[in-house]
């Protein structure tokens, strides 16, 4: 197990709470689910109306980390893997899969469960389980 | 819906989401892969992030959804589909595999753009292509 400090736990709980508050703002004020896949992938759909708000949300999503790393001198995370085929494969199946199942960690995992949606509960259990299997295969069987 | 105030709220929601991901370590693919690596050096942080977010939403969503409508719109835009079908399971399984391979889910990938890593860009472009292909090939 990775040894975590109390500050790690505090920041994890605080960060999670902020994500929850973001979801409240979206639902209470504009009646939308704060699901990143739904917000992002609908931009690919030429028929989608009410587009500007999606761009505004994504702008905030990108600016938020920029600000917080700058202001609080929070270290920038290490780069992801530089294995290009792996990045492309992971990106393709993440995009295809989240579009097919209509949601990802935010839409199903945080918002869907809070609405007691049985689809979201099943989706969350499924992607968690396959995430564990995927990392097990990658790190312990293939050794990447 | 088109008022300036509603856009400010949406911007604030985006900012809070991004800040939440950044401070909790969720933009770090190694932390996320560490969480999924239960047989290796397990990093439990993601579970605390998810639980904290869920406590906040579980306590408030039922109350919000009791209202007739949101503040700036005439209705709540919620998924109408409630059936658990093959698409849901297959899609979630594909996402889980992709999530494990790199450690990015869509939110943190987009929230990591400002770190300037080319790996993030390759992942996001591939993800958009994947979603686009799904949109075109499945009804």
From TrEMBL, chain A:
Q: How does it sit in the membrane?
A: Multi-pass membrane protein
* Keyword list, A-Z: Cell inner membrane, Cell membrane, Membrane, Transmembrane, Transmembrane helix, Transport
Q: Which InterPro entries match?
A: Sulf_transp_TsuA/YedE (IPR007272)
Task: Give the chief site where it resides.
Answer: membrane
Q: Does the keyword Zinc apply?
A: no
GO CC terms, sorted: plasma membrane
Q: Where can this protein be found?
A: Cell inner membrane
Ribosomal protein among keywords: no
> Per the record, a Pfam family?
Sulf_transp
Show the stretches that span the lipid bilayer.
12-31, 52-72, 84-100, 121-138
Q: What family does the entry list?
A: Belongs to the TsuA/YedE (TC 9.B.102) family.
Tell me what this protein is called: Uncharacterized protein
Q: Which organism is it from?
A: Psychrosphaera saromensis
According to the entry, what is the taxonomic lineage of the organism? Bacteria, Pseudomonadati, Pseudomonadota, Gammaproteobacteria, Alteromonadales
From TrEMBL, chain B:
**Swiss-Prot/TrEMBL keywords:** Membrane, Transmembrane, Transmembrane helix
Q: Where are the transmembrane segments?
A: 46-65, 86-104, 116-134
Q: Does the keyword Transmembrane apply?
A: yes
Tell me the protein's name: Uncharacterized protein
Q: What is the lineage of its organism?
A: Bacteria, Pseudomonadati, Pseudomonadota, Gammaproteobacteria, Alteromonadales
């Amino acid at each position: 197990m990775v040894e975590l400090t109390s500050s790690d736990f505090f920041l994890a709980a605080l960060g999670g709470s902020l994500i929850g508050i973001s979801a409240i703002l979206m639902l209470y004020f504009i009646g939308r689910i704060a699901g990143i896949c739904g917000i992002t992938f609908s931009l690919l759909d030429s028929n989608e109306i009410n587009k500007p708000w999606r761009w505004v949300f994504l702008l905030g999503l990108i600016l938020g980390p920029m600000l917080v790393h700058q202001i609080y001198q929070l270290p920038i995370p290490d780069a992801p893997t530089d294995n290009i085929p792996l990045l492309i494969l992971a990106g393709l199946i993440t995009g295809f899969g989240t579009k097919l199942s209509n949601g990802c960690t935010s839409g199903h995992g945080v918002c869907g469960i809070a609405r007691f949606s049985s689809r979201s509960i099943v989706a969350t259990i499924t992607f968690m389980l396959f995430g564990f299997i995927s990392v097990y295969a990658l790190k312990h069987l293939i050794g990447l | 819906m088109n008022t300036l105030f509603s856009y400010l709220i949406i911007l604030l929601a985006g900012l809070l989401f991004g800040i939440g991901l950044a401070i909790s370590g969720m933009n770090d693919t190694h932390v996320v892969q560490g969480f999924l690596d239960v047989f290796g050096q397990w990093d439990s942080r993601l579970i605390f992030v998810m639980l904290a977010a869920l406590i906040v939403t579980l306590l408030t969503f039922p109350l919000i959804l009791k209202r007739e409508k949101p503040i700036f719109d005439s209705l709540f835009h919620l998924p109408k589909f409630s059936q658990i079908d093959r698409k849901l399971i297959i899609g979630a399984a594909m996402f889980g595999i992709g999530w494990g391979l790199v450690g990015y889910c869509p939110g943190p990938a987009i929230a990591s753009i400002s770190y300037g890593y080319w790996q993030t860009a390759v992942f996001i472009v591939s993800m958009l292509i994947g979603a686009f292909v799904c949109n075109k090939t499945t009804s």
